[in-house]
Design brief:
Layout: H1 8-21, E1 25-28, H2 33-46, E2 50-51, E3 61-63, E4 77-81, E5 93-95, H3 96-107, E6 115-123, E7 132-138, H4 141-150, E8 152-153, H5 155-161, E9 168-173, E10 183-187, E11 192-196, H6 201-204, H7 207-223, E12 226-228, E13 231-236, E14 242-248, H8 255-259, H9 265-269, E15 273-278, E16 282-286, E17 292-295, E18 300-304, H10 314-319, E19 325-327, E20 330-331, E21 337-338, E22 350-351, E23 357-358, E24 378-382, E25 399-407, E26 417-419, H11 423-431, E27 434-436, E28 448-450, H12 463-476, E29 482-486, H13 505-516, E30 523-524, E31 529-530, H14 545-551, H15 556-571, H16 579-592
Parallel strand pairs: 1-6, 3-19, 4-5, 4-10, 7-9, 9-11, 14-25, 25-29
Antiparallel strand pairs: 2-3, 6-7, 6-8, 10-11, 12-16, 13-14, 13-15, 16-17, 17-25, 18-24, 19-24, 20-21, 22-23, 26-29, 27-28, 30-31
Helix pairs in contact: 2-4, 11-12, 11-16, 15-16
The structure holds guanosine-5'-triphosphate, sulfopyruvate and manganese (II) ion.
């Protein structure tokens, strides 16, 4: 394959990286089923993956990562530029040449005795003007197999690149998986990503968070578009009319679940239908009609396994029955898999995510129940296998966006849904969005942290400039999507969720779309518009009037406390924060007084 490649810079880069990492062999990945099979066999024989039950889970594999390598490591993730001001107060920064130097010491000779796989991939439909091309070099077959599911990998990618096409240079090595020698480095000024010392998804599938968000957000500002941590879904109503929404929720806050939602019975009867476009990343541009259009650059789901079952997410259950890679779940004796809150009975025994024998109810030395699957264990599966997969997945122009949802986990404070007064107010709400920490992030669970647009860990430049970019994009649109904030996670005095969530979330979306179509009024509150209670369809829901009231309670004193936290957060951006954001802050303060 190497000899037929016309791209001199690509060839030189691969050679240079190989002389740094010193692999025994270089293998070009062409996306063919034959090569895939060969790699699967090789990885199985080396113990990198385990083939699962061929009858019950055809084409499926199992993988365990190292015990201290089970989630993205934000404290080891850096944006590397010449000037620190480029990355702002929310990113870790490293001076470009220092970063290369430090990483080179770890990369040096790290692939001795291993093969280097060259994976040319396209994020977005091949050849679409919306798409971006990357080439990942990795010493992990697990990475190759995941990339084959998550991105467009084929010989055609090299054809599209031709002799001088632009591509993101992605270098990855597991090295020795030592957390003290782990670095996830982004060089937006060089369109380059270097990741070393990890084998976990978001750290190593470099087309995902690293390229499609950190590098892409940097490019998007330069080129006038948006790269966002958002799901994309279509909602078809009784007349066959499909409207699309996107949703920015932090990691493990419900994007996959919402994107694949199954309508409640009463909505099914009305012929409502959901079309899944994407569950994690949305690239959006203003088209010639002046409205915002979105594509999902990915071709697969890298979804949270625990909690996935036929009640919470039947479409996911259907999607992961074949050709799926399971990471860090429980392995059952019959070579099938299980996780907490999976379908069926709890297995009597198995091997847990750490590779140890496991039995239900087992306690650790602190007396806590030992989980079979890691809370951030994941499945990798092709979108095409999802029963609700959109028929527009490969459309070069994507889908038009009617509404943007923002959300997070807030046990208190935030109502089930509210609408921003206008675009600028919506950008303010997104800039001050906060959520309780989940297991998808390394760190203290449950702690509330600000996470603007769910992009805090993923914005490749100063977030103050990111807010400015959003404000500017709004001005350029003839027809702006409306911006809504949702919270499925509010709890009562006993810590029980007030809202049933999952499929029932469609009731909230129905109201949102009615607002977009100017079909219903709303109640104006200091924080935004909330539904008139009679406009939210709660038919056949076991939801008392009292609960409904609690869901929409806006406690002014709690909000004033939140405002104070917002002020401290926004002040970290110093002079770089757009004045419009402070304007909205002051206006909210006034409305609350
Ligand atoms: P990433 O892949 O990390 O970006 O996460 P995600 O945003 O796609 O989150 P996902 O849909 O996987 O949901 C994560 C967790 O949230 C799971 O444990 C779900 O069970 C739970 N969850 C999702 N939707 C709802 C909901 O409507 N209500 C409640 N209570 N929990 C939900
Ligand atoms: C997330 O954490 O937001 C994910 C999983 O979607 S990862 O790809 O690991 O980032
Ligand atoms: Mn995500």
């Amino acid at each position: 394959m190497f000899d037929t490649i016309k791209h001199k810079k690509l060839k030189k880069w691969v050679k240079d990286m190989a002389s740094l990492c010193q692999p025994d062999e270089i293998v070009w990945i062409d996306g063919s089923p034959e090569q895939k099979k060969k790699l699967e066999n090789e990885a199985c024989s080396k113990g990198e993956i385990i083939r699962l039950n061929k009858k019950k889970l055809p084409g499926c594999f199992y993988h365990r990562t190292a015990i201290n390598d089970v989630a993205r490591t934000e404290h080891l993730t850096f944006i590397c530029t010449k000037r620190k001001s480029e990355v702002g107060p929310t990113n870790n920064w490293m001076f470009t040449s220092t970063a290369y130097k430090r990483a080179k010491e770890i990369f040096k000779g790290c692939m001795q005795g291993r093969k280097m796989y060259v994976i040319p991939f396209s994020m977005g439909p091949l050849g679409s003007p919306f798409s971006k091309i990357g080439v990942e070099l990795s010493d992990s077959i697990y990475v190759v197999l995941n990339m084959l599911i998550m991105t467009h990998v084929s010989k055609k990618v090299l054809e599209v690149l031709a002799s001088d096409g632009e591509f993101t240079k992605c270098l990855h090595s597991k090295a020795d998986l030592d957390i003290t020698r782990r670095l996830i480095l982004h060089f937006p000024e060089h369109n380059t990503i270097w990741s070393v010392g990890s084998g976990y998804g978001g750290n190593v599938l470099l087309g995902k968070k690293c390229l499609s968000l950190r590098i892409a957000s940097y490019l998007a500002r330069k080129e006038g578009w948006l790269a966002e941590h958002m799901l994309i879904m279509g909602i078809e109503d009784a007349n066959g009319h499909v409207q699309y929404i996107t949703g920015a929720f932090p990691s493990a806050c419900g994007k996959t679940n919402l994107a694949m939602l199954v309508p409640p019975k009463s909505f099914m009867k009305k012929n409502y239908r959901i079309w899944t476009v994407g569950d994690d990343i949305s690239w959006m541009r203003i088209d010639s009609d002046g409205s915002l259009w979105a594509i999902n650059p990915e071709t697969g789901f890298f979804g949270v396994a625990p909690g996935t079952n036929s009640r919470s997410n039947p479409n996911a259950v259907e999607t992961i029955k074949k050709n799926t890679i399971f990471t860090n779940v429980l392995l059952k004796p019959d070579k099938t898999v299980w996780w907490e809150d999976a379908d069926g009975p709890v297995p009597k025994k198995g091997i847990d995510w750490m590779g140890r024998p496991w039995k239900p109810g087992m306690l650790d030395d602190k007396g806590k129940v030992v989980k079979g699957a890691h809370p951030n264990s994941r499945f990798t599966a092709p979108i095409s296998q999802c029963p609700s997969a959109s028929f527009r997945l490969e459309h070069h122009h994507g889908v038009p966006v009617s509404a943007i949802l923002l959300g997070g986990r807030r046990e208190h404070l935030a109502p089930l849904v509210y609408e921003s007064f206008n675009w600028q107010h919506g950008v303010y709400i997104s800039a001050t969005m906060a959520s309780e920490r989940t297991s998808a992030q390394f760190g203290k669970l449950g702690e509330v942290r600000f996470d603007p647009m769910a992009m805090l860990p993923f914005c490749g430049y100063n977030m103050a400039d990111y807010f400015r970019h959003w404000l500017k994009m709004g001005k350029r649109m003839v027809k702006q999507p409306r911006i809504f904030c949702v919270n499925w996670f509010r709890v009562d005095e006993n810590g029980k969720f007030l809202w049933p969530g999952f499929g029932e979330n469609l009731r909230v979306i129905e109201w949102i779309l009615k607002r977009c179509n100017n079909e219903v009024g709303a109640v104006k509150t200091p924080i935004g518009y909330i539904p008139k209670l009679e406009d939210l369809n709660t038919d056949s829901l076991d939801l008392s009037k009292d609960t409904l009231k609690k869901l929409f309670l806006i406690d002014k004193s709690e909000w004033r406390e939140e405002l104070e936290r917002q002020r401290i957060f926004l002040a970290t951006f110093k002079n770089s924060l757009p004045e419009e954001i402070w304007k909205e802050y002051r206006a909210l303060k006034k409305r609350l007084d």
